[in-house]
């Protein structure tokens, strides 16, 4: 009896203790997600700088994922991850203005970091510097507004969704998901430095795990260096590419498949790191005509750069996107589930604006006013250059025609400063009609416990990122930081100032070196700044705010024509279904429907969708099971003459889709003469989804596939072990030989 009672008391006590332990959280975290999908027609995509790559529909919607971190003393940082090519200073200035008007001084340019995933399949035109909007016919207000509105909504949602939380960090290797696309430049780095690393790209993914007091997952941020260029420059559908899809996969996994994209509680962000020279096209560059590997040093085929293109790992760009996304999602989940390094300590930030054109370095060296090298025009193996830099009136870009006669020849000083870069565009010495590239950039360091986010406004190469991380860690420890710092490069954050290579890589002047705009000492200058920020943070001292960047949004030029009018073909009406799906479709098949369309720029349908796949449970209950944000659907828009257009909706029916009746809906916002925009809704007839006979065969095949993958992994492991043993043997035999030599002597 007695012992029994004691046992119960003990149990109750320990349960209470456990509870107080669990409730003991280190931080408050607010998390929000919102739609930022820009104009889905006629707007150039940001990234490949290919004027003919314009939006013609949606494969995946773009999202803004906002995370507010607050310590016990209410020190706050805001990290926003965007499905966009990068961030833009012009957008940041607008975001900060709006946040200040709502939240006062809680959010400033100093403690807000907004980072792009680097998808090359999102609408362009949101930059304030001229060079980045030449191929988009200048500034595109619709793109800019979609970003601003979506980011603000995601932050508002995060503000309304605060939880006491614990944070954990984990990191581990993800193989077969990235390669170096300028390996010959990497080889310019000193042998001793390269010897410290096994690979010529960073394979580590770092994951920040966010859980509430009970350990329930709230959110996740992962950083992994890989270009979001699985979708290539022939793609016209808005897509968040491999990182965006990884996020949707993880979110669907935790929130449940029934929760529509962007609507769930758990938010997963796949953020960018030092991806400057890192490609997802893991089969590497090959010549389009011969199929042979390209010239190693120049990435050319018979001297032609446009013939050398990197592919893989899938059979087409969709499959490649899916594979690289799946790899990132699975690795992030594994690291999340096994994370044990708990973050403790303050939230903090240091930020300064840095004039990158005027940095002084040891030995009288300096950085230079911005300039792009010739290799910039050639592009990369992920997307050969299509930037038309010839000073001719036949350029497809009216912006280029507008400014090209003003192109300056670089000064002798500028040529010397950038040596050995052959200067193609002297952007730093041109300011008509406004600055071509930034001079004053955001440089920022965020701290969450032991985690340090080095927010860089550019694309750092692998080695540039490693040097920066090491310098920050050393600087923190030299200044007295006692724990083990976890430095992470948060790439493409706050602003965009092209690429950053190491001094040595710069000497080869491949694309990344040609796009390192402040000259050969760019990296060293950045590292000095981040060292200062690290030191100041550790010492608790302030940093100088630096010179203010210009706000150029009111000066933007734009040549993109507005939508004038939509018209339906004679005898037809808007949103009318012109091609019905088959009455019966099998799981695993693709359903296609066509409608009389209208320009999707009339209404971006943010937080909404252009299409719905509805499951008809019965005559009074229709449930939306897919939207235009799903991987399984495609919304394609095609112009048919001056004012008419056609919309094609496809739905790839998953093998496990519930059998039953379905229909596809299309929302058609069309513009009338005079400017009014009206909505027409169209729907297909209802069609039946039936069981696939293939399903069982496929699940068997899946099982075999998995077995094979496991065996392959085993083999790989054994191979590694063998390699290690061989290495040891080599060393032994060398030693033996040496001994033999010394014996004979
Ligand atoms: C990768 O992560 C592991 C485990 O955290 C760490 O030991 C290693 O130093 C990291 N490698 C690089 C190149 O950062
Ligand atoms: C690439 O260039 C380096 C010198 O920079 C040279 O040593 C090497 O042989 C070249 N490789 C090929 C395959 O041309
Ligand atoms: C883009 O990918 C498609 C396959 O999806 C391929 O047919 C095409 O050649 C690729 N084009 C470029 C320029 O990479
Ligand atoms: C770093 O800090 C030192 C001391 O405050 C200052 O003199 C120097 O200009 C700073 N350098 C950079 C690059 O910010
Ligand atoms: C339709 O299904 C819902 C449940 O999903 C049920 O509540 C409703 O009564 C059904 N209506 C008809 C007309 O069968
Ligand atoms: C309609 O059906 C769906 C799927 O069966 C179900 O989840 C939902 O609750 C139903 N809605 C209503 C109003 O009955």
What would you note in describing this structure?
It contains 15 helices and 35 strands. The radius of gyration is 27 Å and the shape is globular. The N and C termini lie far apart (86 Å). Strands 1, 4, 5, 6, 7, 9, 10, 11 and 15 form a nine-stranded mixed β-sheet that branches. The chain folds into two domains: 23-343 and 350-359 and 434-555, no CATH class; 577-691, Immunoglobulin-like (Sandwich), CATH 2.60.40. With 745 residues, it is α+β, with helices and mostly antiparallel strands. The model is unreliable at 1-22 and 388-394 (pLDDT under 50). The chain is 28% helix and 26% strand. The longest helix is centred in the last third of the chain and has 51 residues, at 694-744. The site of one 2-acetamido-2-deoxy-beta-D-glucopyranose has 5 residues, from strand 29. Residues 1-22 form the signal peptide. Keywords: Coiled coil, Hydrolase, Lipid metabolism, Metal-binding, Signal, Sphingolipid metabolism, Zinc. This is Neutral ceramidase.
